[in-house]
Amino acid sequence: MFAEEYDIIVVGGGHAGAEAAAAGANMGMKTLLVTMNLQNIGQMSCNPAMGGIAKGQIVREIDALGGYSGLVSDESAIQFKMLNRSKGPAMWSPRTQNDRMLFAESWRIRLEQTPLLDFYQEMITGLVIEGGRVSGVKTALGIAIRSQAVVLTNGTFLNGLIHIGEKNFGGGRAGEKASTGITEQLIDLGFDSGRMKTGTPPRVDSRSLDYSKMIPQPGDAMPGNFSYLRNFKLDKQLDCHLTYTSAEVHDLLREGFDRSPMFNGSIQSIGPRYCPSIEDKINRFAEKDSHQIFVEPEGWKTVEVYVNGFSTSLPEDVQYKALRSVAGFENVKFFRPGYAIEYDYFPP
């Protein structure tokens, strides 16, 4: 199946893998992008947004280096907002709210139009090692694909374990299986590994929400762009909305603290950045009677909503009961509950 040798094989089709594959191919390298599901290339795993404080500048830096993230973000934007306007220009942080499905489609189209870039769908379970160096990858079907270099961009998939309350099951993302084999081989080769954790909030049906009880959060009157490579004009925008938790909501959430693996110590992993769960915020800032909840649409045509600020690993019944006490969520219908995920990483 793979008679030729590639210059670069990129394992994983998330944002990092997509950029790595595009960079390799655009530098004239024969590149292969291997991922477990080609339908999920460029998938937004968490909130449907790009940029923001301390992150928007990175998207523009990638754009300046010829990357695709800025272009894809602009093409799929449903709202643009420049944050930190009250501070000096060096602190301004561009942020787009994006159409999740359009974002992934835009990534797929751009990558398929990139010369020298091939694709293959399968789990990579190990590396081919010859003469003390990496010379390719091995797939779950036992196929060896040869290359001069391999880039691993595995995200949350390496031995991923999803937690919802006291329940846990293998997975790299909701509805997708975990990846196995790579961690074990790298440890045998002398690499150190660790475990990281992160969490995500429930997704809900916008038709079940009462937006009259929330505060609209419109985009900028004169929306800008991420990319300097093309000038995109965002003619219309979708509002996000703001609501708040309350002391009642906090009390309901506390009822499940003993069953929250991210809070009760069952998960000992570290977080890649400061992104606290709602239970962590309530515990750390016990003096606060409320916390912000941003209600973010997932796209132009879908009714799915991302409940930003309500990341949690609490049992699903506790999540549901507490969220129904948030203003505007009294009749909320869940698409799926929030969850925590643990996964392998390799310290630099």
Question: TL;DR?
Answer:
With 348 residues, the chain is α+β, with helices and mostly antiparallel strands. The protein has eight helices and 19 strands.
Plain-language structure description:
It is globular, with a radius of gyration of 21 Å. The chain has two domains: 6-198, FAD/NAD(P)-binding domain; 203-345, Beta Barrel (Elongation Factor Tu (Ef-tu), domain 3). Strand 7 (124-130) and strand 8 form a beta hairpin. It contains eight helices and 19 strands. The chain has a six-stranded mixed sheet with strand order 6-2-1-9-8-7. The chain has helices at 15-26, 56-64, 69-75, 100-112, 182-188, 247-254, 278-284, 316-323, and strands at residues 6-11, 31-35, 49-51, 77-83, 93-98, 117-121, 124-130, 133-139, 144-152, 161-164, 167-170, 194-200, 203-205, 215-217, 240-244, 292-297, 304-308, 334-336, 339-345.
Oligomeric assembly: single chain
Q: Choose one word for the global shape.
A: globular
Overall strand count: 19
Regarding CATH, which class of the largest domain?
Alpha Beta
Helicity range of the residues? 10-25%
Question: How would you summarize the topology of this molecule?
Answer:
Elements: E1 6-11, H1 15-26, E2 31-35, E3 49-51, H2 56-64, H3 69-75, E4 77-83, E5 93-98, H4 100-112, E6 117-121, E7 124-130, E8 133-139, E9 144-152, E10 161-164, E11 167-170, H5 182-188, E12 194-200, E13 203-205, E14 215-217, E15 240-244, H6 247-254, H7 278-284, E16 292-297, E17 304-308, H8 316-323, E18 334-336, E19 339-345
Parallel strand pairs: 1-2, 1-9, 2-6
Antiparallel strand pairs: 3-5, 4-5, 7-8, 8-9, 10-11, 10-19, 12-19, 13-17, 13-18, 14-15, 15-16, 16-17
